[in-house]
Amino acid sequence: MDDILVARNxxxxxxxxxxxxxxxxxVKRGEVHAVCGDNGAGKSTLxxxxxxxxxxxxxxxxLKETPTxxxxxxxxxxxxxxxxxxxxxxxxxxxxxxxxFMGAELEYRKLGIKMLDKNQMxxxxxxxxxxxxxxxxxxxxxxxxxxxxxxxxxxxxxxxxWNADIIIMDEPTAALGVRETEQxxxxxxxxxxxxxxxxxxxxxxxxxxxxxxxxxxxxxxKTHISRSTAELTAQELSALxxxx
Length: 244
Ligand SMILES: Nc1ncnc2c1ncn2[C@@H]1O[C@H](COP(=O)(O)OP(=O)(O)OP(=O)(O)O)[C@@H](O)[C@H]1O
Ligand SMILES: [Mg+2]
Hints:
Number of strands: 12
Radius of gyration: 19 Å
Structural class: alpha/beta
Strand order of the largest sheet: 6-9-10-3-11-12
Order of helices and strands: EEEHEEHEHEEHHEHEHEEH
Bound molecules: adenosine-5'-triphosphate, magnesium ion
Helix content: 25-40%
Distance between the termini: 33 Å
Shape: globular
Strand content: 25-35%
Largest sheet: 6 strands, mixed
CATH superfamily of the domain at 3-91 and 165-242: P-loop containing nucleotide triphosphate hydrolases
């Protein structure tokens, strides 16, 4: 089967608030799958369940056909699901390579003492960035000196470093200008070319119809529509999201 991730009838409450009543999501291997919906529809909650930040109360989650429940984000990461949150989770004062290897630094031993393998981390960082056609060449550049699109490339490289085969991106273009948005869309295209499955949460209808293969629309905690984006315009997509 080519479904890499399936969520069925997912339910999640926060106290009296039922954030998800019945969410379904079926993601095919290698596709760019957008998740859309109005504010409060349950997009972030669904993504939190898939990425191990929260756990569902009901329904089931299948990863590569295996029933799965992630108890923490590390567990999802090990299973191949990396999530890039809107704040990107980068350390702005640290270098590109340090961010890419954050929490998984490469080491070597010299006279029995563990040392950080800076040269190897720099070399591998270059390879990850080259995979997504990034223009960054000096891996010691401090992240706070990068543009929004370049930062997104660093965050994606970190996900690749974890061998993620599913990358979830929460509003990756929300804070970006036109040129940077275009860069990020190119990064997503490149990931797809490399066989990575991308789940994209976005409020930008034109980004969704341009880049996604499929869209799932949530409404008040339920899956309202799941369809291909072929021949779908941004206006039609907005209308489907607003439809009651
Ligand atoms: N930790 C929480 N505690 C209580 N209620 C929550 C919590 N997280 C989300 N909710 C509620 O659950 C519902 C779904 O929220 P969620 O953040 O998943 O929506 P969303 O689709 O991501 O919205 P947005 O587009 O505004 O980001 C909302 O009514 C929200 O107020
Ligand atoms: Mg949200």
